[in-house]
Write a structure and sequence with these properties.
The strands form nine sheets. The chain has an eleven-stranded mixed β-sheet with strand order 35-34-33-36-37-41-40-39-23-1-38, sandwiched between helices. Strands 2, 8, 9, 10, 11, 12 and 22 form a seven-stranded antiparallel β-sheet that branches. It has 23 helices and 41 strands. By secondary structure, it is of the alpha+beta class. A hairpin with a 4-residue loop joins β10 and β11. The protein folds into four domains: 283 residues, Nucleotidyltransferase, domain 5, CATH 3.30.420; 254 residues, no CATH class; 112 residues, paz domain; 128 residues, Response regulator (Rossmann fold). Helix content is 27%, strand content 25%. Probably involved in the RNA silencing pathway. May bind to short RNAs such as microRNAs (miRNAs) or short interfering RNAs (siRNAs), and represses the translation of mRNAs which are complementary to them. InterPro entries: ArgoL1 (IPR014811), ArgoL2 (IPR032472), Argonaute_Mid_dom (IPR032473), Argonaute_N (IPR032474), PAZ_dom (IPR003100), PAZ_dom_sf (IPR036085), Piwi (IPR003165), Piwi_ago-like (IPR045246). Belongs to the argonaute family. Ago subfamily.
């Protein structure tokens, strides 16, 4: 007979409803001052708990112990192209480059830097023994074999540099005088000095060692050099370079996203070491660019106005700053630094009039009159000018004469509509994507590159074949303990009840100006709920916002609505259904969620009524409501029978960790760290979230362990560890499985040696001497490996796993496509197992990962990444709505001084009545 941990039978017999009541009782027994201490140690311990763990031991990612065997074999293709190394004895020499202009200022423009180095190679070819360069556009230059000497000093003349960006526009002096002075300015100088000095040797053989699974000092350096070679090739073709992706100036690659923004389709390329050898990973990539064309058209489209006179100019100034334009009257490019204070017809500037070599006088002239004297008639002199000069030296150009330069990245946040359009228009079927990347490898003719050919590098022109396996979908259990078998990653609740439905008695519907029939919504929600096993009483009230409140601020509107709710209900509601006028970007959403979850402790569900509110719609809404209120929609059959390998036998805590950052253009917005932890062991379908703010753009979570001045820990892990203990029959986790999202390979060491140490300290600070065993897994979605069926135009089937061929030659990683991809090309999740003290077999670990893709309570499909990570992302996104980051940015930017960093605002904590709920569903 199978042995179980004590108390397992109790939980099984209690049922889910009793489990919730037991949990509420435990909350009354424990508070935040509770520390778990074994009885044998209790008498010995007093005062602060000493953290015993030696965190000086450096951990490194583990090696692959074995490969998985379970599943149906399937042959796939991958967008990796095999690379042959025929010259492993070749050595790359790295040189440091310093480029200075005539005024001794260092040139930091990549565009100028590449032009200077290209000109240097032409001018001093013999002095350099005809060596070809691979230049990264900044401070590093690579050659195959050494240059004749270690140090060089060259002078390079670029004839076109100053003329490209100067002349023909009004400045404080006349255009002619301005040109003479600008020749000596840093980025406009003709003459450059270039210092080249030897830095390091990078043997190509080091990558051959890495391919054999050996630790290699320069393995990553070789890959970086090879990537620089490919980037340089595309730079010479005039492409926009964005990290390892490149985008050509071809209008056929642009898709309009409205608002003056276009999606630009390009290609990603990177060399990878795999267990099958060196490979080139080639994929389709997309970035956002400013739509080229007249600046006036851009502004009208960006602000969605019909007439240029309706432009919000302060907003336009912010949008235009640092963009490049080309003036059509002289065909020269300029960078915008701002707008003039006055329109062209009134904006004055002093123009010095000369007679020969003798200065006569300075004349004030308007921009309009200046251009009129140059036979350029302005048709819109009432518009302000673009300032393309310097902060203390303005240079004005009429907007109507300027066009947006092509291939300028758009780095501001997209609207929800733009994001949806980008996703829709960027989709490619598997067959089309295969054709595009294969054609790209052939057309780029990499084998003809002089540096690659001198290393004996040859790139295969066909996709790599990969051996894969398809794991069986885990069986689910729904209401009445009925089995539900997913079909191609999907299931439904037609004629089925939810596994653990809740009962909703005291609730109301509130309507913030949404045009809908609240009675109909109430009626259909109740009917749908009852068919799924959720007993829903009629709402106590239907509360409409009055017309006067609609003119108030969002916070005031929420407060007024709550006054009406309180007046219409006999007591605090269990649940509120909130009707919003729009689905995305509604300014009511954040204040409403904060009021409910932080102040009132009320579970709420927001919807935006539409004409598509059918039974499936209400079912999806009820899945969220049921999970938020403590019910469970479905669970794994193995979870129900307590037969999950490794996890069911020993108390196991599963964590999902993610950090959400502000939009690319907002470095002042705090990042939000969220961690969810499983609860009610041996379940793996229930989670609680803990969320904190931290410094902007910081990926490592710094509040896992957070000791206060009084010695108490106020960190994330204490909250989740206590919750696990209180909901798992007073059991401490003996095993902790960590799923971490959003980190790159260069940050693996920090996860293992910084974040994991913080988790250990949090555990030890609670008085437990024996540490649990840890398994640490990174989940990456932001990669470019794709999988294709060799003999079918469809996406790979759900449950596909690859742990050979294209995986790391030494480390423990695998690709899994748990979900079905009905549209576009499926992107597998790349899982890296950094540490496995628990000791999973490859098959058991892969089946656990697949199972965790089926416990996502919000949907009836398998998801692409494990549910704990999705929950962490949702929790960070929802609690981020609590804070008005725009106000924080405005008030803090002016008060920050150099002696002290800006303070990071803390998120409001959740109300005690909802803090343990799955409010994020």
């Amino acid at each position: 007979m199978e042995q179980r941990a004590d108390g397992d039978e109790v939980l099984e017999q209690m049922g889910m409803g009793a489990c919730r009541r037991w949990e509420q009782k435990q909350k009354r027994l424990f508070n935040n001052s509770f520390i778990w201490i074994p009885d044998s140690m209790a008498a010995k311990m007093a005062g602060a708990v000493q953290v015993l763990k030696d965190d000086t031991v450096k951990r490194t990612p583990m090696a692959r112990p074995s490969n998985g065997r379970e599943g149906k074999p399937i042959r796939l293709l991958s967008n990796h192209f095999s690379v042959k190394l025929r010259g492993v004895d070749a050595v790359f020499y790295q040189y440091s480059v310093c480029i200075k202009s005539e005024d001794d200022k260092v040139v930091d423009s990549k565009g100028i830097g590449r032009k200077v180095i290209d000109k240097l190679l032409q001018t001093y070819c013999s002095e350099l023994d005809g060596k070809d360069f691979a230049y990264d556009g900044e401070k590093c230059l690579f050659t195959v074999g050494p240059l004749p000497q270690n140090n060089f000093e060259f002078t390079v003349i670029l004839e076109e540099t100053s003329s490209r960006a100067a002349g023909g526009s009004p400045v404080h002096e006349s255009p002619t005088q301005a040109n003479k002075k600008r020749v000596k300015r840093s980025h406009l100088a003709k003459k450059f000095s270039v210092d080249i000095s030897y830095a390091a040797k990078i043997p190509l053989q080091s990558v051959a060692l890495a391919l054999r699974g050996s630790e290699s000092e320069h393995g990553q350096d070789v890959l970086r050099v090879l990537d620089v070679v490919l980037r340089q090739q595309q730079a010479k073709r005039g492409c926009l370079l964005v990290r390892q992706s490149f985008f050509s100036d071809d209008s056929r690659n642009l898709v309009d996203l409205t608002g003056g923004v276009s999606g630009c389709r390009g290609l990603h390329s990177s060399f990878r070491t795999t267990i099958g050898g060196l490979s080139l990973n080639m994929d389709v990539s997309t970035t956002m660019v400013v739509t080229p064309g007249p600046v006036i058209d851009f502004l009208v489209t960006n602000q969605n106005v019909r007439d240029i006179r309706d432009i919000d100019w302060p907003r336009a100034k912010k949008m235009l700053k640092n963009l490049r334009v080309k003036a059509k009257h002289n065909n020269m490019e300029f960078k915008i630094i701002g707008l003039s204070d006055q329109p062209c017809s009134r904006q004055m500037f002093p123009m010095k009039v000369r007679n020969g070599n003798i200065e006569i006088k300075s004349v004030d002239i308007t921009v309009q009159d200046y251009f009129k004297s140059k036979q350029v008639e302005l048709t819109m002199p009432y518009l302000p000018c673009l300032d393309v000069g310097k902060p203390k030296r303005p240079n004005y150009l009429p907007i109507e004469l300027c066009h947006m330069v092509s291939l300028q990245r758009y780095t501001k946040a997209l609207s929800s509509q733009q994001r949806a359009m980008l996703v829709e228009k960027s989709r490619q079927k598997p067959q089309e994507r295969m054709r595009v990347v294969t054609d790209a490898v052939k057309s780029n003719m990499y084998d003809d590159d002089p540096i690659l050919s001198s290393c004996g590098i040859e790139i295969e022109k066909q996709l790599t074949r990969v051996d894969a396996r398809v794991l069986s979908a885990p069986a689910l259990v729904v209401g009445n303990s009925e089995d539900c078998i997913p079909n191609r990653g999907r299931w439904n609740y037609n004629n089925k009840r939810l596994f653990d439905p809740v009962k909703i008695e005291r609730w109301a519907i509130v309507n913030f100006s949404a045009r809908c029939d609240m009675s109909r919504i109430s009626r259909e929600l109740i009917n749908c709920g009852r068919s799924k096993g959720i007993f829903i009483e009629c709402p106590h009230s239907l509360v409409d916002e009055d017309s006067q409140s609609r003119r108030c601020s969002p916070v005031e509107r929420v407060e007024k609505m709550f006054e009406k709710v309180k007046a219409s209900l006999p007591g605090p509601p269990e649940f509120l259904l909130c009707l919003l006028p729009e689905r995305k970007n509604c300014d009511i959403y954040g204040p409403w969620k904060k009021k409910n979850l932080h102040e009132m402790g009320i579970v709420t569900q927001c919807i935006a009524p539409s004409n598509k509110m059918n039974d499936q719609y209400f079912t999806n809404v009820l899945l969220k409501i049921n999970a938020k209120l403590g019910g469970m929609n479905s669970k794994l059959a193995l979870e129900h029978r307590q037969m999950i390998p490794v996890v069911t036998q020993i108390p196991t805590l599963i964590l999902g960790m993610d950090v959400s950052h502000g939009s690319p253009g907002r470095a002042d917005i705090p990042s939000i760290a969220a961690v969810v932890g499983s609860r009610c062991w041996p379940l793996i379908s229930r989670y609680r979230a803990s969320v904190r703010t931290q410094s902007p753009k910081v990926e490592m979570i710094d509040s896992l362990f957070k000791p206060l001045d009084d010695g108490k820990d106020d960190g994330i892990m204490r909250e989740l560890l206590l919750d696990f203990y209180q909901t798992s029959q007073q059991r401490k986790p003996k095993q902790i499985i960590i799923f971490r999202d959003g980190v790159s390979e260069s940050q693996f060491s920090q996860v293992l040696n910084v974040e994991l140490n913080q988790i250990i300290k949090a555990y030890q600070s609670m008085g437990q001497g024996d540490l649990p065993k840890f398994t640490v897994i990174i989940a990456q979605k932001n990669h470019h490996t794709k999988l294709f069926q060799a003999d079918s135009p469809e996406n790979v089937p759900p449950g596909t796993v690859v742990d050979s061929g294209i995986v790391h030659p030494r480390q423990y990683d695998f690709y899994m496509c748990a979900h079905a991809g009905p549209i576009g090309t499926s992107r597998p999740t790349h899982y890296h197992v950094l540490l496995d003290e628990i000791g999973f077999s490859a098959d058991n670990l892969q089946k656990l990962v697949l199972s965790l893709s089926y416990v996502y309570q919000r949907s009836t499909t398998a998801i692409s990444v494990v549910a704990p990570i999705c929950y962490a992302h949702l929790a960070a996104a929802q609690m981020g709505q609590f804070m008005k980051f725009e106000e924080f940015a405005d008030t803090s930017s002016g008060s920050v001084n150099s002696s002290s960093p800006p303070s990071i605002p803390e998120l409001p904590r959740l109300h005690a009545d909802v803090c343990s709920s799955m409010f994020f569903c």
